[in-house]
Design goal:
36% helix; 123 residues; single chain; two-stranded parallel sheet; alpha+beta; Rossmann fold
């Protein structure tokens, strides 16, 4: 969700990539639904490992899940590293609707944080 939100909000000024320390191998169906609700299609995306990006340099690296900071490898070539601790919605329990509410909330929290960082207003 973070990658797609950054691409949507940052436009052509940014190139965003997303990866996990323990990727699931698939994009969570509730993440796909949550993003479809705001007209962003992530259904063709794939779950990637941070290992794919070890040899790349980045202007900015942001860890987003509560436990990601502890498990994320160091990106020594990154100009800036931030940690934005969001609940991992994939770990949510409860009914499908209860879990969907958590995906929506986390989606919106990530969006708000990106908007604040970029210094703009939500579109």
């Amino acid at each position: 969700m973070a990658e797609a939100l950054w691409k949507s909000l940052g436009g052509d000024q940014w190139h965003a990539e997303s990866a996990g320390s323990h990727p699931s191998g698939f994009v969570h169906p509730l993440a796909i639904r949550a993003m479809q609700e705001i007209d962003i299609d992530i259904s063709t995306r794939r779950s990637k490992s941070v290992d794919e990006f070890q040899d790349r340099t980045f202007d900015l690296v942001i860890t987003v899940c509560d436990n990601a900071k502890d498990f994320c490898p160091s990106f020594s070539g990154a100009r800036q590293i931030l940690h934005w601790p969001f609940e991992d919605p994939a770990d949510a329990a409860g009914s499908e609707e209860e879990r969907m509410q958590i995906f929506r909330r986390v989606r919106d929290e990530i969006r708000e944080q990106i908007v604040r960082y970029l210094g703009g207003s939500p579109s």
